[in-house]
Amino acid sequence: MTTRMRGEIAEQPAAIRATLEALLPRTGEVEAVARDTRHVLFVARGTSDNAAVYGRYLIEARAGRLAALGAPSIATTYRRRIDLDGVLAVGLSQSGRTEEIVETLQWARDCGAKTIAVTNGGESSPLAQTADLALCTLAGEEKAVPATKTYTTQLAALAVLAIGLGADVDPGDLRRVPDAVEKLISDPGDLEAVVGGLAGKPGVVVSGRGMVFSTALELALKLKEACYLHAMGLSYADLLHGPIAVVDEDTPAILVAAGEGPTLAGTISLAERVTGAGASAFGVGGGAGLAGASTAALNGPDLPEWLAPMGLIVPGQLLTEALARRLGIDPDSPRGLKKVTQTD
């Protein structure tokens, strides 16, 4: 059985490549809109909110600007006005039609913020029309309900945003991302072993830290949406503060890491602690060190840490699709979900 989700996973190298070709020449426009701003406020929900977590870490760690995730309910439910002078508000919506996000971005603009939209909905979408600048991704239509290519192209757009904000990175490294993603699609690692290790389990903890925390959150969301698992996405710093008590024979851990960077050693140590306690630890990325400390492992991309999340989610997407089929679930149309979610 070939699912739409699996087909759209395979379209990601081309979608990322097209998005980067369209957006990389526009870093000067980002710089111009962001002039006279100091802070970045992300406005998003769901998968887009997980993408925003990546944007927050990237901008704080590499562009030296304070960034935060906004609470749309402050605008839409509490109707509070906040002084946003000096703030760059970035609204993320794959469809560009989520009313709550459109309304919140307009609220931010009315409160004095400069505004940027990141959307796959095109320049004519309500979100793009609301913003001072729209960074439109080129993922094409996504028919499966679980987001795959719209998520990774959002990450690509956020990398371009960070470059426009002066991030201390090599923009040329972005050109390596499509090929790295393509390699992971053809060789995701020990996929069958991880699927087998999760089949029949009621829940799982998914953990990563720093730049890859976004991947842990997104993979946990996908496992909830498409496999109906009780999946908990946590920073490993938070996991060690108490919730690690839930990791046992019936609740394995999926641990995510880039192949380099300051959080890798801690992730390997966590894998050793989990397996030492008799539970299963499934690695995603982290090179030979994490693979060696894990029960089974999925491959990661040959990319620097700041770009690793664009690749790390791909074996997680393949895992989600394969596990859903193993469980007899159609990953294209999970129960209770729609492609565009409107929040009261």
TrEMBL record:
Query: Which E.C. number(s) belong to this protein?
Result: 3.5.-.-
Q: Which UniProt keywords apply?
A: Hydrolase, Repeat
Does the keyword Cytoplasm belong to this entry? no
What Pfam families is this protein classified in? Answer: SIS
Which part of the chain is the SIS domain? 29-171, 194-334
Q: Which CDD domains match?
A: SIS_GlmS_GlmD_1, SIS_GlmS_GlmD_2
UniProt keyword annotation of Repeat present? yes
Q: Which Gene3D superfamilies match?
A: Glucose-6-phosphate isomerase like protein, domain 1
In terms of InterPro entries, this protein maps to: GlmS/AgaS_SIS, GlmS/FrlB_SIS, SIS_dom, SIS_dom_sf
Q: What class of enzyme is it?
A: hydrolase
Q: Name one GO molecular function term.
A: hydrolase activity
The record ties this protein, via PANTHER family, to:
AMINOTRANSFERASE-RELATED, GLUCOSAMINE--FRUCTOSE-6-PHOSPHATE AMINOTRANSFERASE, ISOMERIZING
Name assigned to this protein: SIS domain-containing protein
